[in-house]
Amino acid sequence: MERAKRYYVKEVASITGLSAQVIRKWEDRYGIVRPERLDNGYRVYSEADIAKLMRAKSLQLEGHSLLKVAKLLEGSAETDSGEQSVIPSEKKVGHTAKLLEAGSRCDEGELSLILRHAYNELGLRSFLDDVVIPFLEEVGRKWETEEWGEFQESFSSLVIRDFLINLRRNYKAHEEAPLVIGACFPGETHEIPVHIILLKLMLEGYQTHLIGASPAPGVIEAITDRLDPAIVLLSAATTLPFIRHPEVLPALDRFAASRPEIRFYAGGEGTMLYTASHQPVMIRVTNDVEEIGPPSGN
User: Fold this and answer.
1) Stretches in the chain below the pLDDT threshold 50
2) What's the predicted TM-score (pTM) here?
3) Residues of the chain above pLDDT 70, percent
4) What is the rounded distance in angstroms from the CA atom of residue 19 to the CA atom of residue 9?
């Protein structure tokens, strides 16, 4: 039987984004993890230890004290309402930890294999919410803090994008289901959020069509006229599309007014920032996919 992989503290620090000093503090002072020790005295950590450290980090960012975090991870603490706290399962966080390790090495085969295992084990909804989104958030953080280089960030994002594309292509919707068109605003290249939203809407019973990253001005309107969807989703992760193309949002808003039978939504961090002072009239601005809801009659 193959021995479970073990990690030195430097490797754990790279995967979790926690310093070696913090990891040792959380171990010695709070007992959050209890790694094995080799004969030479070195600590070695299991994948379960890494998953627990990532859960502890997530809980601390939510505002819990480390003492409370330690109790939550032991399953002995309760929320103020008296209900047991909801903590991401070790299995889900473990998938994310494995993805981060493979991504740091730019191992495409390993990344794809982990994604496939996580999807098969958790199902699409939990796979997106509990593995893909946390992984992408951690990749972004590692890039911003320069723990990862641009190549590692770009490589990992491309593998995720390609995996999501294949999922959407192979996910069968009813031929009578209403159609949703998803597109980035012109000038926006971050298309992964659109893939995630479209997959979630397929779970609700929609057909989907992706226009993709940075369409030329006018393409969204032309494809909408041709396909006549029930819903059009627009996304911008940055404000650059609106700075480079200040006429795009007003033009799309006027187009939405000309097609009142179609629901138009716009979201993404860049959209939310820009529309705080440039609110469209007909396009609904939201980051909550649940506002769209299932098709009528579902």
Assistant:
1) 1-2, 76-87
2) 0.75
3) 92
4) 9
**CA distance to 16, 152, 191, 201, per residue, from 139 (Å):** 11, 9, 16, 25
**Other Cβ atoms closer than 10 A to 259:** 16
Between CA 100 and CA 104 the distance in angstroms is: 6
Instruction: Write out pLDDT tens, residues 263-286.
Output: 999 999 999 999 999 999 999 999
Rg (CA), the chain: 22
Residues in the chain: 298
Alpha helices, DSSP H only, in the chain?
9-16, 20-30, 47-61, 66-74, 90-104, 108-122, 124-127, 133-144, 150-170, 192-204, 219-227, 240-244, 248-258, 269-275
Tokens representing 104?
């740091």
Predicted local confidence at residue 62, as pLDDT: 72
Reference 50, options 113, 96, 104; nearest CA is 96
Burial zone of 21 (CB within 10 Å; 0-12 exposed, 13-18 middle, 19+ buried):
exposed
The answer to whether the CB of 266 falls within 8 A of the CB of 298 is no
100-117 pLDDT, tens digit per residue, is 989 999 999 999 999 999
DSSP secondary structure, 90-101, as one string = HHHHHHHHHHHH
